[in-house]
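Researcher: Quick sanity check before group meeting.
Model: Go ahead. Protein one:
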Amino acid sequence: MTNNGSNRLDRIEVTLEQMLAVQRELQETQLKFQETQLKFQENQQRQETILEQMLAVQAELQAGQLELQAGQLELQERQLRSQDNQQRQERILEQLIGYSITQESDKLDLEERMNALEQRVRGLENR
């Protein structure tokens, strides 16, 4: 019985060692899984931070684009006003030249008209 009991104890010991080995592998696997989960969470947080930064940059870019568009619109309006003023000035100049050529000096006091024209030009430039 001693031999039989010894064999039995050996088998129990081997079984216990195998169970402990399985338990150790399970614990190592759980630790690796926890590490993987932690890394995943860290990566997710980094991605969220990067996404927030990207959204902030995008918002700044959109605001800048809106400002640029507003500036372009204002510039176009100024250019149109300038063209209108230039066309008016050209018509007045053509009229002045026409009066001068036809010698209708009695209908037009050229100096007064030029002064008025210069005042209008200054007024338009000051706008």
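Researcher: Fine. The other one?
Model: Protein two, sequence then structure:
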Amino acid sequence: MENLIKAISLHQPWASLIASEHKHYETRLWQTNYKGTIAIHAAKKFHNDHRF
């Protein structure tokens, strides 16, 4: 059986902030019951709003 991992794509700087544990929550319009390890994919472009 294959080992699959869930992933989430985020713009910078949000991806780095989550990976470095400075940002603890990410909200989306969709719901999931998934609990466990997740990969963070940093999108190529930066988010336009650099206020954080």
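Researcher: One line on it for the slide.
Model: Residues 15 and 48 are 14 Å apart (CA to CA).
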